[in-house]
């Protein structure tokens, strides 16, 4: 099992460019999440998907869109990148079955917007 | 308004001693609490959790204590090892489908 995979690992964008961060999990989890982590701060939730076909905003959704393509894949899109979106982005998944709330994280995507 | 706070950005302990990491929360609706460990350039990994119906949960060298009346939880690592050096995040969940994370505490265990 690969767990949670993210592509790309690194990306540099110019202001105004767009890109999509890809995430896939092979654990048959219902719930998937996108977080960003800025230096010295914790993980802030951007969007999450409780099940295939549903998405909800998290704490910091502005400037982002998501797609839950199927049960395995959850992508994050930046339509017009801004320097404030320079961050490390983590995707996570969780089964949330039988009271199990732990999340499994991918290795992260380090994004720099110049 | 930060609902989950880790007031100590860093902690340094000697190998073999106890490490105590603290976390406070403000939302009384939180009913499940988790600790994650993060190494540089990696994603966080789940460490240990506790339900609000319990006040203690142990897993090997790691024990989490929950004091609901004080809205406080702590993670004890005994004995601490150099490999435990990492950033530790506290997280809280309301069964609404998402967790709220603290800003993390960087633990350094000195040989």
Explain the overall architecture.
The complex is a heterodimer of chains A (114) and B (111). Chain A is an all-beta fold and 114 residues long. Chain A contains no helices and eleven strands. In chain A, the strands form two sheets. In chain A, strands 2, 4, 5, 6, 9, 10 and 11 form a seven-stranded mixed beta sheet that branches. The termini of chain A are far apart. By secondary structure, chain B is mainly beta. Chain B has one domain (4-110): Sandwich (Immunoglobulin-like). Helix content of chain B is 0%, strand content 55%. Chain B contains no helices and eleven strands. In chain B, the strands form two sheets. In chain B, strands 2, 4, 5, 9, 10 and 11 form a six-stranded mixed beta sheet that branches. In chain B, strands 1-3-8-7-6 form a five-stranded antiparallel beta sheet, with no helix packed on it. In chain B, a hairpin with a 4-residue loop joins strand 7 (62-67) and strand 8 (72-77). The radius of gyration of chain B is 13 Å and the shape is globular. Chains A and B meet through strand 4, strand 5 and strand 10 of A and strand 4, strand 5 and strand 10 of B.
What would you say about this model in short?
The complex is a heterodimer of chains A (114) and B (111). Chain A is mostly beta strands and 114 residues long.
The number of helical elements of chain A comes to: 0
CATH fold field value of chain B: Immunoglobulin-like
Q: State Rg of chain A.
A: 13 Å
Could you name the CATH class of chain B? Mainly Beta
For the secondary structure, the number of strands of chain A is: 11
The ordered string of helix (H) and strand (E) elements of chain B is EEEEEEEEEEE
Largest sheet of chain B: 6 strands, mixed
Beta-strand segment tally of chain B: 11
- CATH superfamily annotation of chain B: Immunoglobulins
How would you classify the helix and strand content of chain A by structural class? Answer: mainly beta
End-to-end Cα distance of chain A: 36 Å
* Series of H and E elements of chain A: EEEEEEEEEEE
